[in-house]
Amino acid sequence: MKFNNPFKGKNTMNTENTGNQNPELENELNPETPTTDTPEVEAAEELTVEQQLEEQLAQEKDKFLRLFAEFENYKKRTTKERIDLFKTANQEVLQAMLPVLDDFDRAMQQISKSEDEALVKGVELIHEKLKSTLVAKGLEHVELKAGDDFNADFAEAITQIPAPSADLKGKIVDVIEKGYKLGDKIIRFPKVVIGQ
């Protein structure tokens, strides 16, 4: 009796056409074939991802430091501006009071010639109180006198006259109106006459 082999002609392990079969089975049959998911490739990908993240972190740190420095500069600038504003906040009021102070100074010169001691003393007390109040608010007198060198940054020349002496040429001959400053800022320049 002859038996027919049901498996004859059928190759259950077709190694020639393995491209269309399961890749895991192919890897098991051909262990020499490299796969794309090997640990070396994954490690390389992780390193590049780590490097990318480190670069991004460095960029974000740089942005943060720049922003922080810019904010610190802004805070310093606004603090300085606020301090300057507080120093000069009374500028308009003080400028409005300067003509009154000038009139008071002229009145004091005339009243000091009076023989009434009580009147002179009373007006002198009021005059000193006004001056001390304005000084307390930051008003300072710009000190200039005859014989000082003329500087256009600190005084305003209203006229030139022939110098009474050779040593007064180009210098201040007379101060017509006092100058005042508030802090470091001159709010009224002294008006002077200079020698020619």
TrEMBL record:
Return any one Pfam family short name: GrpE
Extract one GO molecular function annotation from the record: unfolded protein binding
Location in the cell reads: Cytoplasm
Give the CC-aspect GO terms.
Answer: cytoplasm
User: Which keywords accompany this UniProt record?
Assistant: Chaperone, Coiled coil, Cytoplasm, Stress response
Q: Does the keyword Cytoplasm apply?
A: yes
Which intervals of the chain are annotated as region Disordered? 1-41
Per the UniProt entry, what is one GO biological process? protein folding
The coiled-coil segments of this chain are 43-70
Q: Which residues cross the membrane?
A: none
Q: InterPro entries recorded for this chain?
A: GrpE, GrpE_CC, GrpE_head
Name the predominant localization. Answer: cytoplasm
Stretches of Low complexity bias are at 20-38
Return the HAMAP family for the record.
GrpE
State whether it acts alone or in a complex, and with which partners, per the record: Homodimer.
Main function: Participates actively in the response to hyperosmotic and heat shock by preventing the aggregation of stress-denatured proteins, in association with DnaK and GrpE. It is the nucleotide exchange factor for DnaK and may function as a thermosensor. Unfolded proteins bind initially to DnaJ; upon interaction with the DnaJ-bound protein, DnaK hydrolyzes its bound ATP, resulting in the formation of a stable complex. GrpE releases ADP from DnaK; ATP binding to DnaK triggers the release of the substrate protein, thus completing the reaction cycle.
Write out the similarity annotation: Belongs to the GrpE family.
Record's protein name: Protein GrpE
The organism of origin for this protein? Flavobacterium stagni
Q: What is the lineage of its organism?
A: Bacteria, Pseudomonadati, Bacteroidota, Flavobacteriia, Flavobacteriales
